[in-house]
Amino acid sequence: MRRVTNATMAVVVSVAIAAMIPTTAAFAQSDAAIRDVVAQQIQPMLDGPGGVAVAVHVDGRTLFMNFGDAAPGRPVTSDALFNLASIGKVFVSTLLAQAVKQGDVALDDPVAKYVTELQRGGDIKRVTLGQLASHTSGLTSTPQQVETWHRGQYTLPDFIRYLNAWQADDGHEPGKQFIYSNAASALLWLALQRRYDMPIAALQE
Asked: Which of 7, 14, 33, 42 has the fewest CB neighbours in a 10 Å radius?
């Protein structure tokens, strides 16, 4: 059975090792030799909790290697699942760039154009897709930073309610400041799903 690893204890690292592996015919690129090169680069990184899964493609074959622990006492294995955390923001930004290139959306489009429930809101109607992607929307990192009274996970209705009630101020003005925002990224995911009427997983294929 596949398991979900603890995001605080495990890290996914994509490492470009192939460039460090000689490709001349004189070098016998045995699997063991390649694994040694990878281990020399990875082991110094593992000086604390966490683990790494590495894939190396060389000479037409792909080698998979695991180092460290996914959780205390649980080594990284070939079936371990990692929480990608903020790496997901790279995917949503790439999807947005592709959508702009295809002419399907524009960076200056208000997010409320696609998440139509926000048309009933206030300042959120001024926020654009480009601002969401560049962390300049003015939104705080999470709704809980504003709604300290909220308990539990945010449902979609909770999230929409929060966004419609959100008020910009001098320190949170759309397009004016860089504020790293998980809420903005989540809203961008939602906008792209609405634009294409497809789940994010399907859009990434």
From this structure: 14
Q: Which residues of the chain have pLDDT under 70?
A: 1-29
Contacts of 123 (CB under 8 A, 6+ apart): 138, 166, 167, 168, 174
Cα separation, 163 vs 172, in Å, equals: 13
What pLDDT score does 7 carry? 37
Cα 138 from Cα 198, distance rounded (Å): 27
Question: 132, 185 in Cβ contact below 8 A?
Answer: yes
19 CA to centre of own chain: 26
Identify whether the C-beta of residue 184 lies closer than 8 Å to the C-beta of residue 129: no
Give dist(CA 111, CA 188) in Å, integer.
Answer: 8
79 backbone φψ class: left, alpha, beta (φ>0; ψ -120 to 50) = alpha
What span, in angstroms and rounded, lies between the C-alpha atoms of 115 and 188? 9
Query: In whole angstroms, how far apart are CA 8 and each of 27, 71, 154?
Result: 39, 9, 21
